Amino acid sequence: MSGTRSARSARSGAPARRVLVAADKFKGSLTAVEVAERVTAGLRRTVPGLEVESLPVADGGDGTVAAAVAAGFGRREVRVTGPLGDEVTAAFALRGDTAVVEMAEASGLQRLPGGVLAPLTASTYGSGELLAAALDAGARTLVFGVGGSATTDGGAGMLAALGARFLKADGEPVAPGGAGLAELASADLSGLDPRLGEITFVLASDVDNPLTGPKGAPAVYGPQKGASPEDVRRLDAALAHFVKVLEEPAGARATEFAASPGAGAAGGIGYGALLLGARFRPGIEVMLDVLGFAPALERADLVITGEGSLDGQTLHGKAPAGVAAAARAAGKEVVAVCGRLALPPEALGRAGIRRAYALTDLEPDVATCIAQAGPLLERAAERIARDFLD
């Protein structure tokens, strides 16, 4: 009871009566839509009839299309090439002439057959096909969310699907994947889809790494995709060679873009997108604009955000940090839900989050916590209602 009283006494003004739930997924247990449903159920169990608006959010990584669909975009499905060449069904979201394309739909880790990692050979070709499908559907604005990739090919596969040619010395195409770029002898960008020069193209990512080097895509993210230390060295050298060869058709911008923020996103697909004319923006900022967060925020008295793990990475461009920053700027109070909390109260406060409710506080066993995330999240939401809404 003392914790509840202190939470109530800490806040000012009248109790909030309209709540906006703008949380990301709990990876491995709940989608962003399911998080919003569970939070809403818990809130209303404690405060019947409470006005709750749900706006599932994403930062450009996996779950971005689902968030757009939940916000009213139409879901479009298309058959594309998976990261190892097999055909997969991928989706993008379309509303009017704006498309939200998620590279993980075509080239993500979840698309690897049997979940077997392939750091040297996985290709982004299907992501290029997905972009082309969005153009075919009439998109004039492409929001390209990147993250969760199985690939480290610098976007070469994507560029090839959109009309570029990457050839070995014998005139044959290089092998798919980042390792194949070591044999690249010439690059021809003249066949790229001309529609790309006539649209607004936004690269939405939560990372700002360059393409190569100690902070580049292979070094930082390669191990997550199964790359050994030797694989990382091979991939980094191959991508550096890729950039060097691209100086012939693309000029100085080939090297400039390689060092630009976002070039290393999703195994370097950010680099390919920059070559296509994309403008890099933090993923959560882009998605909040696309999803209509500002008017929803204006209607709210209390904002609930969150994700599976609130930790140091959260503060660097993840969805909860973006939601909290926007809400704080609007003078709205923010609390968070999470599976696991690894941030001290002062870090939460600096991020604009008043208090965080972790599922592990209710169920310390992590495996049980993941398996029962839904019911536990409802219990956490009941606590929020008692602390902030009663």
What can you see in these coordinates?
The chain has two domains: 2-55 and 292-388, Rossmann fold (3-Layer(aba) Sandwich), CATH 3.40.50.10350; 64-284, Glycerate kinase, domain 2. Helix content is 39%, strand content 19%. It is built from 16 helices and 13 strands. The strands form three sheets. The protein has a six-stranded mixed sheet, sandwiched between helices. A five-stranded parallel sheet has the order 2-1-11-12-13, with helices on both faces. A two-stranded antiparallel sheet has the order 7-8. Helix 1 (2-10) crosses helix 16 and helix 2 crosses helix 16. The longest helix has 22 residues, at 229-250. The chain is elongated. 55% of the residues are buried.
CATH architecture of the largest domain: Alpha-Beta Complex
Structural class: alpha/beta
**Overall spatial form:** elongated
In CATH, the topology of the largest domain is named Glycerate kinase, domain 2
Q: Strand tally, please?
A: 13
The low-confidence parts are 1-13
| Assembly of the depicted chains | single chain
Biggest sheet strand line-up: 3-4-5-6-9-10
Order of helices and strands: HEHEHEEEHHEHEEEHHHHEHHEHEHEHH
Q: Please tally the helical runs, counting DSSP H or I stretches of 4 or more residues.
A: 16
Q: Residue share in helices?
A: 25-40%
Largest sheet: 6 strands, mixed
CATH class of the largest domain: Alpha Beta
Distance linking N and C termini: 13 Å
CATH 4th-level superfamily of the largest domain: Glycerate kinase, domain 2
Q: State Rg.
A: 22 Å
Can you give the mean pLDDT?
A: 94
